[in-house]
């Protein structure tokens, strides 16, 4: 069964970065869905119809950025973006949620926004974060993969090898050669939850390339 991935999209430039990173995972065999989380309904019916239509047009615009094949599109109603995306991930049996960086992030840096940050604390699916400005990169092939974490103990090396093979790329052993970082969680953590160790968290904070953060004992596999 192919990996299913959700791209969080709200129409901002930084979420356009998330769409670009999602397209990389699609090349690696992932089936993509775009999702926008609405936080409340309108009491007046006419206003609610307008807001629902706006939400649909927004995810349609994200799908247009992604291009064919047509991705699934979802408008989720939840007071909390991370909770809404987690519920959708459960419904779709998705193993990955893709975010852009926080909107004030300097170009070329990675900074989780509030929703991604919430899911990096004991979230149940892998989280990928795109660097700010990746939508403007001239070549987003991104096929040199490095694993960061406990050598042989947290699954990051296996996932990095799977992603590199699916992209027709290579696994590298130096951070300055990597085009994507795969970051593992603590091998002694709770299986199925994201619990990165201190070195992994540091790698995320210093990253200038896309980062894929794995839960403990990841089952993530790519097959492009």
Number of strands: 9
The strand order across the widest sheet is 3-2-1-4-5-9-8-6-7
Number of helices: 6
Q: Low-confidence stretches at least 5 residues in length (pLDDT < 50)?
A: none
| Rounded radius of gyration (Å) | 17 Å
Element order: H for helix, E for strand: EHEHEHEHEEHEEHE
Structural class designation: alpha/beta
- The appropriate CATH architecture is 3-Layer(aba) Sandwich
Globally, the shape reads globular
SSE map:
Layout: E1 4-8, H1 13-27, E2 31-38, H2 45-66, E3 72-77, H3 81-92, E4 96-99, H4 114-119, E5 126-129, E6 144-148, H5 156-167, E7 170-171, E8 180-183, H6 198-206, E9 211-213
Parallel strand pairs: 1-2, 1-4, 2-3, 4-5, 6-7, 6-8, 8-9
Antiparallel strand pairs: 5-9
Helix pairs in contact: 1-2
Compose a concise summary of this entry.
The protein is an alpha/beta fold and 224 residues long.
Give the tags.
single chain; 224 residues; alpha/beta; Rossmann fold; 9-stranded mixed beta sheet; 6 helices; 9 strands; 18% strand; globular
Report what the structure shows:
- With 224 residues, the protein is of the alpha/beta class.
- It has a single domain (4-213), classed as Rossmann fold.
- 34% of the residues lie in helices and 18% in strands.
- It contains 6 helices and 9 strands.
- It has a 9-stranded mixed sheet, with helices on both faces.
- α1 (13-27) packs across α2.
- The protein is globular and about 55 Å long.
- The N and C termini lie close together (12 Å).
- The mean pLDDT is 92.
